[in-house]
Amino acid sequence: MVFSERISRLKSSLIREILAAAQRPEVMSFAGGLPAEAMLPKVEWADMPRGIGQYGMSEGEPALREAIAADARSLGIACEASQVLIVSGSQQTLDLASKLFIDPGTEIILEAPTYLAALQSFQLFGAECLSVPQEADGPQLEALRQRLEQHTPAFAYLIPTFQNPSAVRYSEAKRDAVAALLDEFGVTLIEDEPYRELVFDAGSATPIVSRLKKASWIYTGTVSKTLLPGLRVGFLIATPDLFPHLLRLKQSADLHTNRVGQWQALQWLGTEKYKAHLSELRDFYRVRRDAMQVALEEHFAELADWNVPQGGLFFWLTLKQPLDTRTLLDAALKENVAFMPGEPFFAKPDENPGYLRLNFSHISPERLGEGLSRLANVIRQAHLQNAA
Amino acid sequence: MVFSERISRLKSSLIREILAAAQRPEVMSFAGGLPAEAMLPKVEWADMPRGIGQYGMSEGEPALREAIAADARSLGIACEASQVLIVSGSQQTLDLASKLFIDPGTEIILEAPTYLAALQSFQLFGAECLSVPQEADGPQLEALRQRLEQHTPAFAYLIPTFQNPSAVRYSEAKRDAVAALLDEFGVTLIEDEPYRELVFDAGSATPIVSRLKKASWIYTGTVSKTLLPGLRVGFLIATPDLFPHLLRLKQSADLHTNRVGQWQALQWLGTEKYKAHLSELRDFYRVRRDAMQVALEEHFAELADWNVPQGGLFFWLTLKQPLDTRTLLDAALKENVAFMPGEPFFAKPDENPGYLRLNFSHISPERLGEGLSRLANVIRQAHLQNAA
Q1: Name one GO biological process term (chains A, B) (predicted).
Q2: Mean pLDDT score, A338-364
Q3: Which of A12, A40, A253 sits opposite B95 (nearest CB)?
Q4: A259 closest CB neighbour out of B6, B117, B230
């Protein structure tokens, strides 16, 4: 059997395997990124018109495109509904962007760490990944300038607001500086914002695309983190030079996004009901974030450093004594605790040992302490073995 | 702006443009392939569990995979639920198969004509298309053998049952012969069957994949033609050597298919309610097929030849005096009638003039005669101009 060349780059998904192992009910899992079941809103279907069952437009439902454009304008993004493409979850934006830009060897700029599933999509298409180290307030600007001066990347893929996995929120200054650099070098920005609305602490986060003056851009988001991921409804907004190509790629990928999910999303976007739901969601997750912080202080203060995430679903821990955290997985699962190793979030995993991503949205607060205590013990055991 | 090399092969979709023009209410459209609005079944949502809103498995809902495997086994396809992948409409199967097999220059075998959106997907990824002429009972076997002897295609993509556009149903003999040839040369079969259930006249059509003894295969179908296309729920079944790769490609494409549509599809598959609906659907479309045949005899007997389709949604006309039917579109739209030119259904459009695809499912029978009369006049005018 002869497969395409790209299949040699199709990696088995470590996350899939961890999540499968973590499904045993006795496992306390910090591994996934699932919204809490209790916070899935009750939705109504009775009013959905029968005609929604028919084929739809590849662009998406006109009213939903209008609502998303209006929402984006309220964030400062100058755009029209004609620039909005409804996608089958924002993961699809990554697939479409890969197809639009990436040939084997095409250079792209990523944060280090970056979103694992984006990295996998870009690498599948053969991208040469240029990494920019992530600091607490955004990317290291000198490194970004150097990559732009020494290379000709097709785009920069950035997650400036509560990045999965690092939880970093770019500062105002870094947002401005990144926009200015991309304008200076004429490099397209793909700005991925699934976690924008999951904000627990005040602070500005105007999108970087709204600060661009010349560079092309794709801005992408989803209702998966705030409404229902099972709907598989996301969106992208693109500059007019990119939009027609993305639309044709969308049509070739799956004709159009399911209309049932689009209709449901439209029942929520921009409504008072949605605002109230978002507010509840933030309160709920803030409590879990705070409980996790307390438990981490108790069990991990000697083992790791971290910043308290101001939004999103994850803590990102840096071990004081680095080790390849992938080697901890088997021991952790034996102790019925699951976590996500940090290495796969880097284009060069082996050069970046010593990080853990811990989800705080899914596990109930009363099980937190026990789970973190077990995980800390697994790490201590590994340190002892390494020292022996 | 530097795009990937494949974007140079991303064609503007003629169908999109025709369908857009055909949306004016005064246009009588034979162009699309939409199910009749009146036959979209009324569906219930009240019993859908809230948990369906959560993220799901990339493979699809376990119960739906079981139901599809059982249905396939009843067609003679030896398979397990573990070989079933739920996709976002069967169009996605083409995207995943393109990624799995096609590098620029990869040879593949197609029927001539073949399904337009498949051709576009394969060509986007850079396939070198080897065409096998379609006859009334299936592909020309000598041509197929010759392609297999002289080339090393990655797969053969075939639509043996009521193909869009030609409406051909392969005979039993050709199904056996094709299976034997693919086994002999060890070439993977992708068998696409969206129209299997839309059958109006009796006759066997056991899938070709069920006749293979050695070759790998992907079998794909959808609920779009029989239930609701707006759900975007299709499936593929693949041999175990292909399945794990397709699953990872699915995950990279959009994580998983929307669960709301999957849940609804599961309420129908294998039920008495579904059988009754399919029976109504066949009766409804058979009446329209027969009305179209009468109207065609009246208006096109001197202009074209065709076979009466035994299933599917289309008549495929061969003009007695060939001309590039794309050149008829403007004149037809001026007369407020739309159709689909045949040329784009061939890998080499310019070498295959003189075919028209006419849909009979969407237009109401009382408007048929007027629409076909106008279209016939447009063709006669073109013949006169060409003769002048």
Answers
A1: alpha-amino acid metabolic process
A2: 95
A3: A253
A4: B230
pLDDT in tens, B233-272: 999 999 999 999 999 999 999 999 999 999 999 999 999 9
What one-letter code names the amino acid at A364?
A: S
A39 CA: distance to closest CA in chain B (Å): 10
- pLDDT per residue over B129-176, tens digit each? 999 999 999 999 999 999 999 999 999 999 999 999 999 999 999 999
What is the radius of gyration, based on Cα positions, of chain B?
Answer: 21
> Is the Cβ pair B100, A7 closer than 8 Å?
yes
The list of chain B residues with pLDDT below 70 reads none
CA distance B234 to B245: 18
Which residue is it, tokens 């006249």? B201
CATH of A50-271, one of 3.40.50.280, 2.60.40.10, 3.40.640.10, 1.10.10.10: 3.40.640.10
The CATH code belonging to domain B54-271 is 3.40.640.10
Q: Which residue of B has its CA nearest to A58?
A: B16
Residue of A nearest to B116 (CA): A252
CB-based contact A13 B216, cutoff 8 Å: no
Structure confidence at residue A230 (pLDDT): 96
Residue A34's SS3 state is: coil
CA-nearest residue to A45 within chain B is: B45
Helix or strand holding residue A107 (H, E): strand A107-112
> In this structure, are residues A198 and A288 in contact, taking their beta carbons and an 8 Å threshold?
no
| pLDDT, position B20 | 76
Chain A residues with beta carbon closer than 8 angstroms to that of B31:
none
Reported ipTM: the value is 0.96
Distance of alpha carbon B283 from the chain centroid: 21
Mutate one of A55, A119, A259 to test the B interface: name it (highest B CB count within 10 A).
A55
Looking at the domain B5-40+274-387, which fold is it? Aspartate Aminotransferase, domain 1 (3.90.1150)
For every residue of B96-159, DSSP letters joined together read HHHHHH--TT-EEEEEES--HHHHHHHHHTT-EEEEEEEETTEE-HHHHHHHHHH---SEEEE-
Express each pLDDT in A284-334 by its tens digit. Answer: 999 999 999 999 999 999 999 999 999 999 999 999 999 999 999 999 999
Test A34 with B42 for CB contact under 8 angstroms.
Answer: no
How confident is residue A18, by pLDDT bands cut at 50, 70 and 90?
A: confident
The phi, psi pair for B327, rounded to 5°, reads: -75, -10
Contact A53 B228 (CB under 8 A): yes
Distance CA A192, CA A8 (A): 27
Q: How far is B175 from chain A (nearest CA, A)?
A: 23
**Spatial distance between the Cα atoms of B99 and A6, rounded to a whole number of angstroms:** 8
